[in-house]
Design brief:
single chain; 205 residues; alpha+beta; 3-methyladenine DNA Glycosylase, Chain A; 8-stranded antiparallel beta sheet; globular; DNA-binding
Length: 205
DNA sequence: CTGATGATGTTCT
DNA sequence: GAACATCATCAGA
């Protein structure tokens, strides 16, 4: 079942945790892409100096003011785009970074989108893992771009949404520090990263 | 397998 | 002009 507005308007940390095991679906014409979300990070509020919006919103981050469910995509390191989901009620700022996905459907097209070459019979296991095991990687096979999807609403869009996937037990969920935010003096030790235990598509141990 | 390094350009100061 | 929620590639073990 598709996740509705009520799912996304809860507290950012809960949205982040509960997105684990859910399925991100993208329909692009006749192609459908599905994958299980296996790793997320929460970016929360003024106290969290790792969050882009902790000193107020800018043109880049303005969508975070919207009601939970909207997509926040931004450019990083010149060449990559990262996919986030806005959480909380309108006017309350919080977002969840999707850090890794396990492909489920549309893998052949994902492969083409990511590597710019046709899917063939002797795919290395490493190439499949490498499709979606990082925050900048997963947007490429899904065919998601900032220009097309910044600000799109996952609760109402007809070509991108999140639906149920795996039912996880509490012990399947690992909570840890976020990745590559050492610049954040206060936030760097917050336990705001969640991932599925032992899943091969998680970006880092 | 591991760790180091360079690529690359938008955003913010 | 610096910083940056990263990745591909390469050298070494």
């Amino acid at each position: 079942m598709r996740l509705n507005r009520d799912f996304f308007t809860r507290k950012t940390i809960l949205v982040s945790r509960d997105l684990l095991g859910k399925t991100l679906v993208h329909r692009d014409g006749e192609n459908t892409y599905k994958g299980i979300i296996v790793e997320t990070e929460a970016y929360i509020n003024k106290e969290d100096d790792a969050a882009h919006f902790n000193k107020g919103l800018t043109d880049r981050t303005k969508i975070i003011d919207e009601v939970g469910g909207h997509i926040y995509i931004y450019n990083i390191y010149g060449m990559y785009q990262l996919f986030n989901i806005v959480a909380e009620k309108k006017g309350v700022h919080g977002a969840v970074l999707i850090r890794a996905i396990e492909p489920v459907e549309g893998i052949e097209n994902m492969y083409k989108n990511r590597y710019k070459k046709p899917y063939h019979n002797e795919i290395k296991k490493r190439e499949i893992i490498n499709l979606t095991n990082g925050p900048a990687k997963l947007v490429m096979p899904y065919g998601i771009t900032k220009d097309e999807y910044y600000g799109v609403d996952l609760a109402t869009s007809t070509d991108i949404w999140v639906e149920d996937g795996l039912d996880l037990n509490k012990e399947d969920i690992v909570r840890s520090k976020r990745i590559n935010i050492d610049y954040a003096e206060k936030g760097k030790d917050y336990l705001l990263r969640f991932h599925i235990k032992d899943n091969p598509f998680v970006s880092k141990k």
